[in-house]
Design goal:
Layout: H1 2-32, H2 35-44, H3 53-84
Keywords: Membrane, Signal, Transmembrane, Transmembrane helix
Transmembrane segments: 54-77
Protein name: MYXO-CTERM domain-containing protein
């Protein structure tokens, strides 16, 4: 059980660090560049698009690729640690 807690702690720390490393700079950039005004103007001039499934599919595919990569890295690291013992 201690091994599970140790890995869970490491995984949580890594994910928290990655999220903070990406979200905080992006938020600071968006707050300082006037992106809010551009977004409001874009919604005012919004026209009907042909379909919104392309963005949804692309975003979902990207998310699955990132999750798959993280899982693969964790599996490879855990296998390498078992072989050393």
């Amino acid at each position: 059980m201690a091994d599970v807690v140790k890995w869970w702690t490491r995984l949580t720390a890594a994910l928290t660090g990655a999220v903070l490393a990406l979200v905080i700079p992006a938020h600071a950039w968006a707050a300082s560049n006037g992106v809010g005004e551009v977004a409001i103007e874009a919604t005012r001039r919004r026209t009907r698009s042909r379909g919104g499934f392309g963005f949804l599919f692309g975003g979902g595919l990207c998310c699955l690729l990132v999750i798959g990569t993280v899982v693969l890295v964790v599996l490879l690291i855990s296998r390498n640690r078992k072989r050393r013992r």
